[in-house]
Specification:
alpha/beta; 16% strand; 141 residues; 5 strands
């Protein structure tokens, strides 16, 4: 069979208000081999995912929802309203209504142990590659 082109390496956007959790997220993502960007505020999360800056957007966002205010949760919904279609992984105890309204693909509840986020990222990579594989076309005739 011909060599298939590899899917581009997914880029991850990370956000948590808790410094220790941010370090854990960065370590997990680094071990997965995924290039990541760490946002420092909810406004920066929204800007990096749907802002006017040129260039590729992260295809994966890992966001710690537990420490966000109601206003910040409302603001983060802009990523979906403005068309970001990437995979969203939420850390924390996430109600079903929030999972639905934000289009959250996966949740990672506490405790945040080694490899738990790394495994979610590997699953994202597998899902991304599966969704970008060309469909075989039967020969004519």
């Amino acid at each position: 069979p011909p060599d298939l082109p590899l899917a581009p390496e997914p880029r991850a956007l990370l956000f948590s208000r808790i410094a220790e959790r941010t370090r854990w997220m960065e370590n997990e993502v680094a071990r997965s081999g995924t290039l990541s960007i760490t946002a420092r505020s909810v406004a920066q999360v929204v800007d990096l995912l749907v802002g006017d800056e040129p260039g590729p957007r992260p295809t994966l966002a890992v966001i710690d929802l537990d420490a966000l205010t109601a206003g910040e949760l409302f603001h983060i919904h802009r990523i979906r309203e403005q068309g970001w279609g990437g995979t969203l992984v939420a850390l924390g105890k996430v109600p079903l209504s929030l999972r639905s309204s934000l289009g959250i693909h996966r949740t990672v509840p506490p405790p945040y142990t080694e490899d738990i986020l790394c495994e979610e990222i590997h699953q994202h990579v597998l899902d991304s590659q599966a969704s970008t594989m060309p469909i075989p076309v039967p020969p004519e005739g």
